[in-house]
Specification:
alpha/beta; Rossmann fold; ProC C-terminal domain-like fold; 2 domains; 8-stranded mixed β-sheet; 11 helices; about 15% strand; elongated; binds NADP nicotinamide-adenine-dinucleotide phosphate
Length: about 260
């Protein structure tokens, strides 16, 4: 069982991970790197973590270390600390392959992971490659774990982390439209988000039903759902999403 987790790179993602870890367990010790002292101290106070004196001290006190630095910093950060065999080092840096990470993380074991911010609520679907018992245990605390059999799947699957952000943009657009019709803002917000949650929960609780079949049951010929869908199709409102996914994939495929 994991008793201590070290986190190097205390930024946005680290904050979500710390919150989720503490929600999941009061016993796990969380050790944070000191850079961005204000955020590290605030997280330590709020969630009972410890701020180490430097990055090496994070590594020296834990067997499982998450590198939550930006991709361009992750290699340098790793080069400047000494990992030990028997440690598991998890990189969340988008676009950095296991082969790229291995030389700077060796002799520790390298794992790639792709959690998203709802880890704070223990609801993050998290991609992992390669399968690793410590990484699986850790991310199961933060939501659902998806082990990818091949690293070549990791990049396309990571694009969904960007899609996660676009969902906020879509909901914001629909909430703004609803509110400008005169519906109170707080009602518009709840109505839209609860509608999305309802649709998602229906789909998740019916894993054998294809979404297009579920949609068919909602579309009355000549009705309002059909009318709006026709406009979305005519204006490439749906294929624009595939175009955005494809563009992000191309960019990620160029990184190492
Ligand atoms: N944000 C997300 O929801 C999300 C989701 C999935 C994956 N990711 C991945 O997670 C990583 C972090 O993303 P983020 O959005 O959390 O970025 P962020 O907010 O910029 O956090 C990165 C943190 O690392 C710190 N850092 C840089 N060099 C360091 C060093 N030598 N030692 C210790 N800390 C150092 C940065 O400090 P300074 O600001 O002082 O440079 C910053 O606080 C990225 O690789 C990203 O691809 C993020």
């Amino acid at each position: 069982m994991i008793e201590r987790i070290g986190i190097i790179g205390v930024g946005h993602l680290a904050s979500y991970l710390v919150e989720g870890l503490r929600r999941a367990s009061h016993n796990i010790e969380i050790i944070l790197s000191p850079r961005n002292a204000e955020r590290a101290v605030s997280l330590a106070d709020q969630f009972g973590a410890t701020v180490a004196k430097n990055n090496q001290a994070v590594v020296d006190t834990t067997d499982v270390i998450i590198l939550t630095t930006r991709p361009e910093d992750t290699i340098t950060v790793s080069e400047n600390v000494a990992f030990q065999s028997g440690q598991t080092v998890i990189s969340v840096a988008i676009g950095l392959s296991v082969e790229t990470l291995k030389p700077v993380i060796s002799p520790a074991t390298v794992v790639r992971a792709m959690p998203i911010s709802c880890a704070a609520l223990n609801q993050s679907p998290t991609l992992i490659f390669p399968d690793n018992p410590k990484a699986r245990e850790l991310f199961t605390l933060l939501g659902q774990v998806h082990i990818l059999p091949h690293e070549s799947d990791f990049t396309p699957a990571s694009v969904i982390a960007a899609f996660y952000g676009w969902i906020y943009a879509l909901c914001d657009e629909v909430i703004s439209w609803t509110a400008q019709t005169g519906v109170p803002q707080h009602t518009a917000r709840s109505l839209v988000l609860e509608t999305v949650r309802g649709a998602v929960n229906m789909a998740l609780t019916n894993p054998d039903k294809e979404l297009d079949m579920m949609l068919k049951t909602l579309v009355t010929p000549g009705g309002i759902t059909e009318q709006g869908l026709n406009i979305l199709h005519q204006q490439q409102g749906l294929t624009a999403w595939s175009d955005a996914l494809e563009t992000v994939l191309k960019r990620l495929s160029k990184s190492k």
